[in-house]
Amino acid sequence: MAIIVGDIHGNLEKVQAFLAYQPDHEHIALGDYLDSPWESLERQLRALQLLMESPAVLLWGNHDLHYLVPPPFRCSGMQYRETVLQEIIEANHKRFVAAYVADGWLCTHSGCSTKITCGEPAEQIVAKINAAMNAWLYHGERHSIFDIGIARDGSAAVGGCFWFDLREEKPLLDTGIQQIFGHTCQR
């Protein structure tokens, strides 16, 4: 059984509790490690450092991707324009993946619509998403995984796996596959 957490946003206590809970199990963090309106830059850096030093699987979130140079998109939550964050993310970009399969569940930052999943098994979807991420990182190639849907003030009809909005785009969620994701606040 995997231990999974979403949207840390620099919360040091959340990171410590996540990593300490059942340390013999696989741990997966679903992205958004930075850009807290409440946490200081120092606490966000410490939380990110603890995660990167751990064996946890780290997924990209929209609040992490915009620190790449160049970023695939700009995120309105970018609070610290200090180069230290860009330097850390750039130097450690191989530590992150865009998608992962845990116990048969598709794990992404914001979920996948039928636009990305196409009825494929989770392993194939993960391979496709991670290949698209690597195409961006190493060749600057754009892919629909980066789309920002109109529900999040973008121009695409539906958001990609970093911007899908469950509240507004729920009918487009691929319910034929088991998914775990964060990004959209829910009850």
Structure overview:
There is one protein chain. A 4-stranded parallel sheet has the order 1-2-3-4, with no helix packed on it. The protein is built from 7 helices and 7 strands; from the N terminus they run E-H-E-H-E-H-H-E-E-E-H-H-H-E. Helix 1 packs parallel to helix 2. The chain has 187 residues and is α/β, with parallel strands linked by helices. The chain has one domain. Strand 1, helix 1 and strand 2 form a beta-alpha-beta unit. 33% of the residues lie in helices and 10% in strands.
Features:
single chain; 187 residues; alpha/beta; 3-stranded mixed sheet; 7 helices; 7 strands
Count helical runs. 7
- Taken as a percent bin, the fraction of beta residues is 5-15%
Largest sheet: spatial strand order: 1-2-3-4
Separation, N- and C-terminal Cα atoms = 24 Å
Helix content: 25-40%
The overall average pLDDT, rounded, is 91
Radius of gyration: 15 Å
Domain module count: 1
Strand pairing plus helix content: what structural class? alpha/beta
E-strand count: 7
Q: Main β-sheet, in a few words?
A: 4 strands, parallel
Q: In terms of per-residue confidence, which ranges show pLDDT below 50 for 5 or more consecutive residues?
A: none
Shape: globular
Order of helices and strands: EHEHEHHEEEHHHE
Write the topology of this structure.
Elements: E1 3-5, H1 12-20, E2 27-29, H2 41-53, E3 57-59, H3 62-65, H4 83-91, E4 96-97, E5 100-102, E6 105-107, H5 114-117, H6 122-139, H7 166-169, E7 179-180
Parallel strand pairs: 1-2, 2-3, 3-4, 6-7
Antiparallel strand pairs: 5-6
Helix pairs in contact: 1-2
